[in-house]
Design a protein that fits this description.
The protein is of the alpha+beta class. The strands form 9 sheets. Strands 13, 14, 15, 20, 23, 24, 31, 34 and 35 form a 9-stranded mixed sheet that branches. Strands 3-2-1-4-11-12 form a 6-stranded mixed sheet. The protein has a 4-stranded parallel sheet with strand order 6-5-9-10, sandwiched between helices. Residues 1-5 have low confidence and may be disordered.
Length: 682
Amino acid sequence: MAHQSAGAIVGVDVGGTFTDLVELDPATGRVRLAKVPSTLDNQAFGVLNALRAAGCDLPALGLIVHGTTTTTNAVLERKLAKTGLITTLGFRDVLELGRRTRPQAYGMKGEFRPLIPRDLRLEVPERMDAAGEVLTPLDEDAVRAAGERLIAEGCDSVVIHFLHAYANPAHELRAAEILRAIWPNDYITMGHALLSESREFERGVTAAVNASVQPLIARYIRRLTSELATAGYTGEVLVMNGNGGMVSAARVAEEAAKTVMSGPASGVMAAAYTGRQAGIGNLITYDMGGTSTDVALIRNAEPTVSNEIEIEYAMPIHVPMVDVRTVGAGGGSIARVNQAGLLEVGPESAGATPGPICYGRGGTEPTISDANMLLGRLDPTRLASVEGTSLDTVRAIFDDRLGKPLSLDATRAAAAVIRIANLKMAGAIRMVSLSLGADPRDFALFAFGGAGPLHASALAKELGIPRVLVPCRPGITNAIGCLVADLRHDFVQTLNTPLARLDPARLHAVFAAQTAEGEALIARENIEAAAIRRLYSVDMQFIGQTHLLRVPLDRPDVDTETLQRLFEEAYFRRFRVDLPEIRANLVNANCSVIGTRPEIDLATLIAPEERKATLQEAQLTRRPVFFDDWHDTPVYWRDHLPADATLTGPAVIQQMDTTILIEPGDRVTTDAGGNLIVEVAR
């Protein structure tokens, strides 16, 4: 296995508002940090600005790991490359028919636009059955003609999506071979190669997403690596995948769909890593940034990874991704009174430009950040990117836009904005916990993002969560996730066999092949892996059911009796129902091969020499802060807190990348890793 060159490691994450960077030199323990506005038209400029702001010596760097929102934004905004589809005769409308669901469960109408329009979805004669036997041979001339037509229509990329290719990919492989002779680039996606799973709708949409973002991520990575090379960087660039692993920039476009949710995944990986070092394995991660809030569940220091993610209506992306749920509530989320006279918060955001009113860049819409500043929770002199504003201006806008319609003064209107935002975020946390059979009271809340620690204590109280863990650098946790992420490759293979008829040797052979492929891929990466871990699971259901249940396995050489028992246990944990009389079906075999990275001491993110001897020395000032009423509240600088600090709220703790709000009665201690542990008052 090739190893990375010596030198500092950089993790850089591009968010909707800010681009965050952390540089860590494992040899010396030196840390450099940066937070700069994102450049959404060309994210590469934001990355380079962050490198410059941190004072990074590019020629001396050993590795850059990058989390990007390029593909996520492209899919959500439908700013995609023109893509064509070649599919089995009679099945061109699979992507449009989808499943029998509606955008709104109780709505009378809904709009859905498939990724690939009907005139670019072409059919060719071919057919496999579900066992992989050829029913209709592939018409090679029809494939060639379809490819030529799509080229003439101006398509940048193409999807080959044949029925039952997961069972026998021969026709897809031959069609790709024919297209490569005429297609003007490498953007050819075979459905089975990306996802060897049954369910033609989900496999087809996943392949369509992959093909339509391939040219975009390829262009972006080419631009970024070119700019870095021009600036003197000679090392490797790795890109975060949505599964929490990394892949070389040279190969990232091959499976571009796997980079969707790259940014949120990196934060979850940092949380799992931090929790493991802190001895707190069960976490609910809560990442509140400038545009949105992401939440996820971590059990036993292992993030929940799902291949059942639907990022919007009729947009299932069935490659394994960290199961992150997103709500449109971030620091820049706009508050308004709707036509019914009700207060709404988000999902529209003021973004980075012009941003909230308190940024002083011409923003005029009241936001969550403005509400926090009005309530004394934020110090306007320390807001990142602030160019000067007046608290009176913020108060006047809140009074006019929100207070008068709601018959409240500006302070109470701001408190109402915070309350509504907290309820939205609590709902997202319930989605990743209660809806999956997990009790939030059994977890700690891991609060990060630029705005997360401001709301964490109130959210924990709302949900009955007993503890909040605030890491060393909450505002740049996603960038830290890039530093600590492992190399990871996930595989899924459909077997779709009733358990009573399953040959265990067939399952064992699938696991062995997946493991061998994953280990080979990790060996190709130009980065050191300290060890190799393997995770095995199966997707199962009762015969006749539609939905799948993920069943983790301790070992790959499992027998059918053990599979039956584990499935029944998993079903009971999820639904609290015993159904032993219904026969089980094994649908998919899943394997994750993980190359774990060398350990990094996260405590070095706060320099020991910065710490003061007493709490009094760490205090900056006192100011009135509004909770249920105004409280005279001490304000501390986090880097100055003693290593064994203990305090009781109310308090405000400020640092370079975030502000932490401690509610009245909450008790705060620090641990050996530099984390703050908040025991929530009952």
